[in-house]
Design brief:
With 166 residues, this protein is α+β, with helices and mostly antiparallel strands. It has three helices and eight strands, in the order αααββββββββ. The longest helix has 27 residues. The chain is elongated and about 80 Å long.
Length: 166
């Protein structure tokens, strides 16, 4: 009997080593850890974002650049008009635009991209934007068009001009 118990004890002690919580599973790794999964998803998201930016339409970029440039010029003239007390008007001309009301008169500004057209909203009877000198103006907007792309620049009269997609 003692011999039988000795065998049982020796089997229990000499069988497989115990596996702790940090021991690697036998037969290699069976899955991805959460950290590895997050790294893979982050790389995929960055690659997708870069591809989306690379595929952006050149006409859309050019029109966006024209709109941002025009907003900066309009707001600069609006600030000058308020500080000087003289009214300034923005008027589109063939191939560009001119600011009227400043002395000395500056030559017409040209569009950066060929083919930019100005369209007025149907409610606008006047073909010019009035930029001051009053601090609160009437709501105004203008639409820039380049090929099939359109971009609306508008203000409620108090806030600065903003780009809006029609």
């Amino acid at each position: 009997m003692a011999q039988l118990q000795g065998r049982r004890l020796s089997r229990g002690l000499s069988s497989r080593p115990s596996r702790g919580p940090n021991a690697a599973p036998r037969g290699g790794q069976r899955g991805l850890t959460l950290l590895e999964l997050l790294v893979v998803l982050s790389i995929a998201a960055i690659a997708t974002a870069m591809a989306a930016l690379a595929l952006r339409d050149q006409g859309e970029q050019a029109l966006q650049r024209e709109g941002e440039r025009l907003i900066a010029l309009l707001e600069g003239q609006r600030a000058w008009s308020r500080s000087s007390g003289q009214a300034v008007r923005w008027v589109p001309v063939e191939g560009g635009f001119v600011f009227q009301g400043r002395a000395p008169t500056r030559p017409a500004e040209r569009w950066l991209s060929q083919g930019v057209q100005v369209q007025w909203p149907p409610t606008s009877a006047e073909r010019a934007l009035v930029l001051g000198p009053e601090p609160i103006l009437a709501a105004q907007s203008v639409v820039l068009k380049l090929r099939e792309q359109e971009l609306r620049l508008s203000t409620n009269g108090l806030a600065p001009f903003q780009v809006q997609r029609p």
